[in-house]
Amino acid sequence: MAAKAVGKRFKISKLQQQMMMAVLGASLVLGVSIVVSVHLLKHMSFNAKVISKRDESIANYNQAIKNVGICKPSSKDGSFSDKDLEKCNPQSIDVSTIPGTLRYNVMVNMANNTDLESVGRSSQKQCYDDNHKRVDFTAAYSKSTSDDERSYNLKMMKMCSALRVIPDALPAQKNDEALLASLNQIFLLSGFEPEQLSPGTNYKQSKIKGVSTIPIALTVKRNEAETMSIISNIERSIRAFSINSAQIKWGSNASDGSSKLELLAQGVAYYSAETSVQEKTEVVTAKEEKKKTGGSGGTSKNGTSKTNTTNSTKTTNNTNNTNNSTKK
Question: Exposure check for the chain: N or C terminus, fewer CB within 10 A?
């Protein structure tokens, strides 16, 4: 009886040990499964966030290309493939086939405006034929058969179009030579030939965002009619001038009855500050509270995504600088 009792106790103890090991094994498997599942869920969530940011950048990049009219997509959904971007040549695209874009609105809608095109630039001899009639470069552009011919007609459309009054009125960069040429033309129209013209050096930022100024110091000592003509032509100039301070002195000669009007003025001319699309980088992390301070707070508009070894993704923009100059 005692042997049987000992045997039963041994079996019960062994079963208890086996049950304990089974429970511990199941708990270990369950714990590992939970940890792995949480890790996989976090990894999937992070990857989904990365893909979302990348898709947003690609979509904005495609939309920017569509809005300007740089390339034509080959796919039905309007997206651009790498092959489309490699073959992209804005000069080879017929602008009339991309309605609603910036290039279409400028080179078709605005260029065909009779009120604008009726104003010719007489200083450009290439804009007229041998019979002194304006050459219709818009029609020539639509009939172009080669890239070189299309590029030339496009260049002449811009040169001969009255749309040039826009960059003439507000140049896209600081160009002292163009400003002096404009002032010299105003003086010549007024019958006054200045002995010397030189740019100022005291440049100041304008109160208008995106607009900078070029200082002007003007001294005119002529008779009353010529001085008033200069002032009138400055006011009528397409280029904006602001007079900050002016001093006018009038004097007459009793012997011959002549009069002189002396003008001393300080002012500024305006030009559009250089515009650039700055590179913008956003760091996407798995946890928002651990985001690095160096990361950008906004989402980049255009660019591509790259994942590094620290579980972060950077989205980088393309940088474009606009730097145009116009001389009168």
Answer: N
Non-local (6+) Cβ contacts of 78 within 8 A are 62, 66
Could you give the strand order of the β-sheet that contains 313-316, starting from the edge strand earlier in sequence?
Answer: 281-284, 313-316, 304-307
Write out pLDDT tens, residues 56-83. 888 888 888 888 888 888 877 777 888 8
The token pair that represents 146 in the structure block: 């080669």
Sequence-distant (6+) residues with CB within 8 A of 87 are none
Query: Which residues, including other chains, have CB under 8 Å from residue 177's CB and lie 6 or more apart?
Result: 327
Give the pTM.
0.47
What's the CA gap between 215 and 270, in Å, rounded?
9
Nearest to 91 by CA among 113, 75, 69: 69
Alpha-carbon radius of gyration of the chain: 37
**Where do the structural domains in the chain lie, given as residue ranges?**
82-165, 170-273, 276-322
pLDDT value of position 35: 93
Amino acid 8: pLDDT: 77
pLDDT of residue 33: 93
Query: Alpha helices, DSSP H only, in 109-160?
Result: 114-117, 137-142, 147-160
The predicted pLDDT at position 32 comes to: 93
Nearest of 108, 126, 130 to residue 117 by alpha carbon: 108
Q: Which CATH number fits domain 170-273: 3.30.1330.60, 3.30.70.60, 3.30.70.2860, 3.30.450.20?
A: 3.30.70.60
Are the CB atoms for 261 and 228 separated by under 8 Å? yes
Residues 64, 4: Cα–Cα separation, whole Å: 89
